[in-house]
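This section describes the prediction task in plain terms. A model, or a person checking by hand, is given the sequence of a single protein chain and must write out its three-dimensional structure as a string of tokens. No templates, partner chains or ligands are provided. The sample shown here is typical of the held-out split.
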Amino acid sequence: MHVQGKVAIITGAASGFGKALAKRLVNKGAKVLLADIDVNGGEKLAAELNGSGSKSKKVAHFVRCDVTSIQDLSSLFPEALKHFHRFDIMINNSGIMEKTHLFADDHRYWHKVLAVDLVAVIEGTRLAIDAFKVEKRAGRLEQGGAIVNTASIVGLYPFPQAPVYTAAKFGVVGFTRCFKRELHEKSTSYLAESGRGHNDGTHSAYEAVHEMGIRVNAVGPTWADTGLITDIREMATGMMPLVSVDLVVDAFMLLIEDDSLSGDVATIRPEKGSRD
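The expected answer:
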């Protein structure tokens, strides 16, 4: 997918990866709907991206969005149509870190970690797929649409100091990989051999999207220099060098632009990246 002239919806857009990705996309000729619970940060970024240009050249619009609210998430797609008349890319990027050790969490903050880091990613993907299908059938979407979820290296290698965050990111990785063609083919073959077919409703995630050309991928960076690691910065930097935000954005762009990728997780380590 060439991003020139395309429109991306980005959650968690006011800072970190979301902010850097929004800037990269606009620099490459795309427009962005910025979604975040941080109103000041989101509005400031939208103003920066729009510069002093006329309204007809608007390239960014901010919408306050609490990703744990299905109403807020659902509103992003009509907002994109209202301001930019299309949407092509969905970035499920909002994320938080657990603040208190699980067994000392009397306020059950860990529920919110799962709600933001996992449930909102699944819901955002589901809503985006439904919205892409509507746009495709209406002839407003030339290509099928690209979805990129923000996972983490701890979705592959557990981080025992943050077990709930780890569980959420493992969930994002597993969920995203269900959209991989090779996994679909293996599971379909197994079902056929076992005498089970589609009559019992066993359609795969890949089947739900591939005919429309919709792709679902994820980035899985190691610790990066963003606000997410503020409370664990010393520990994180002691484990390994921080990865640059620019390198993570490179991985986002690869997953958006390479139409051959679906169900892939791009892992990003210091000074290099790879696809798992």
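For orientation: The longest strand covers residues 215-221.
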